Amino acid sequence: MNVTEAITARKSVRAYLDTPVPADVLEKIVEAGRWAPNAGPIQLSVVRNAELRKKINDVTLDAMAHSGIEFLRQRAALPGYQPLYDAPVLILISGPVTIPISAVNAAVSAENMLLQATGAGLGSCFLLSLTLAFDGADGSDLLQKAGIPDGYRVQCAVIVGYAAPESKFTTGERTIKGAVSYID
Amino acid sequence: MNVTEAITARKSVRAYLDTPVPADVLEKIVEAGRWAPNAGPIQLSVVRNAELRKKINDVTLDAMAHSGIEFLRQRAALPGYQPLYDAPVLILISGPVTIPISAVNAAVSAENMLLQATGAGLGSCFLLSLTLAFDGADGSDLLQKAGIPDGYRVQCAVIVGYAAPESKFTTGERTIKGAVSYID
């Protein structure tokens, strides 16, 4: 798939099949994250472990429900809603809390992985709400289980897997966003 | 160019030819920025105007020199250093200051544009230091000239153009970054 096609085909997939992601495909996705323009260290933790994914999912769901942020509270209240959408692979992207641009470093790596996954025919989704789980009371336990280095924060995450035919949690039609002005 | 090639070929180009970027190529780069996974509004300001680019360049250079950040101070002190590297096109990516994730929204859009530019055979570079210019004393004037809406902050930027054969400001060998761990 050429780069333009990958950019326009990429969308937020919110329902996944059980089918595992082949190891070589996953390695290429992770490698794509490492080729991003990072000005500072990042850590990619690739969580295939089902128990840990469920734990992160459940803590995130609870944190969303109690976040005080109306959009997140409403999402968490939807029947059957799971923040990790049962994806078979979760990739956590973390960076040092002492570096203000860690969030930006993580985001550009995430985008590379989303596009590489799209090119490989996989569904994917960029996740931010799960940072609530790692920043909350259960955070230090989750950080340890996920192998995040001391002093690092989970800045964002990506889920990947084979897309299920239908998702009841898709938030809307896929449209192009962003206003543009030319200053000539 | 396929998506994997674009991801691995993308690099930070810090010297540009005068050659203008064709309008249709630039429009595709800008459109790529609008297809990113943004959870909130962003504004893309495409600055081709030479006078405004020079003003932003000069204010950034001064801000870097007085930033108190040693790395930025050292870069600014390099003979002939120009923060915008004389690129013919500067794309400012801004988002509302009231949305905490505006920086992340801007970053994923930036990465899309960098990859689209790479696929089109153009050089590009992700810029963060120029946010100093817009956040500083001359900021409101620059924001107005660049057509940035009220309440928006320039979160990051991308420069694009045809790469010059050599750059004396390249910071080091292009290497893959980011530590990886698998949690199975």
Strand runs of chain A, count: 5
CATH superfamily of chain A: NADH Oxidase
Q: Return the structural class of chain A.
A: alpha+beta
Number of domains of chain A: 1
Mean pLDDT figure of chain A: 95
Number of DSSP helical runs of chain A: 7
Helix content of chain A: 25-40%
What's the assembly state of these chains? homodimer
Radius of gyration of chain A: 16 Å
Uncertain residue segments of chain A: none
Strand content of chain A: 15-25%
Largest contact between chains: A-B, 62 and 62 residues
The first-to-last residue Cα distance of chain A is 34 Å
CATH architecture of chain A: 3-Layer(aba) Sandwich
**What is the CATH topology descriptor of chain A?**
NADH Oxidase
H and E order of chain A: HHEHHEHEHHEE
Structure notes:
Chains A, B: Residues 7-162 form the Nitroreductase domain. Chains A, B: This is Oxidoreductase related to nitroreductase, putative. Chains A, B: GO terms for molecular function: oxidoreductase activity. 2 copies of one chain form a homodimer. By secondary structure, chain A is α+β, with helices and mostly antiparallel strands. The first copy, chain A, has a single domain (11-161), classed as NADH Oxidase (3-Layer(aba) Sandwich), CATH 3.40.109.10. The first copy, chain A, has helices at 3-9, 23-34, 50-65, 70-77, 102-119, 131-135, 139-145, and strands at 43-47, 89-96, 123-127, 152-161, 179-183. Chain A has a 4-stranded antiparallel sheet. In chain A, helix 1 (3-9) crosses helix 5 and helix 2 runs antiparallel to helix 5 (102-119). Chain A is globular. The model of chain A has no long low-confidence stretch (mean pLDDT 95). Chains A and B meet through helix 1, helix 2, strand 1, helix 5 and strand 5 of A and helix 1, helix 2, strand 1, helix 5 and strand 5 of B. Strand 5 of chain A pairs parallel with strand 1 of chain B, so a sheet runs across the interface.
